[in-house]
Amino acid sequence: MSVRHLLAAAAAAPLGVLGLAAPAAAHVLAQPAVTDAYTLTAGRAWSLVGALLGLAGAVVGGLALARPAGRLGTGGRGAVAALAAGLAGAVVGGLVVAAAEGGPGTGYGIVGGVLSLVVGLVAAVLGGLALVRSRRTG
């Protein structure tokens, strides 16, 4: 197995796991939310997970883009990690937004879902740019 196939499989593995977990996550997210403003509901927790994944991907993608020959950018590993984390954060955010039955303040986590969707897409773009740069220089 070539290194390119190994990297592609490593990048696709989290997405496959999320694809299998999507129906279960949608079922959990569709549960009625408690209307208390300070309760950590399932939707808010999932949107927090998505936002943290997207944020981690954005940080790693920024580092891989800023220092392509550094520790995180060697061979495009940082770029692939940022791309995978960003896509995972965007998928989680999209699931939260799709499963939300109410607007902001209802406990479904729609604001955090939109935030994690945006941050995940930014991380995916940064990872993609760093991956293109690492392929061009390497």
UniProtKB/TrEMBL annotation:
<dbReference type="Pfam" id="PF19733">
    <property type="entry name" value="DUF6223"/>
</dbReference>
<keyword id="KW-0732">Signal</keyword>
<keyword id="KW-0472">Membrane</keyword>
<feature type="signal peptide">
    <location>
        <begin position="1"/>
        <end position="26"/>
    </location>
</feature>
<dbReference type="InterPro" id="IPR045770">
    <property type="entry name" value="DUF6223"/>
</dbReference>
<keyword id="KW-0812">Transmembrane</keyword>
<keyword id="KW-1133">Transmembrane helix</keyword>
<feature type="transmembrane region" description="Helical">
    <location>
        <begin position="46"/>
        <end position="66"/>
    </location>
</feature>
<protein>
    <submittedName>
        <fullName>Uncharacterized protein</fullName>
    </submittedName>
</protein>
<feature type="transmembrane region" description="Helical">
    <location>
        <begin position="106"/>
        <end position="132"/>
    </location>
</feature>
<feature type="transmembrane region" description="Helical">
    <location>
        <begin position="78"/>
        <end position="100"/>
    </location>
</feature>
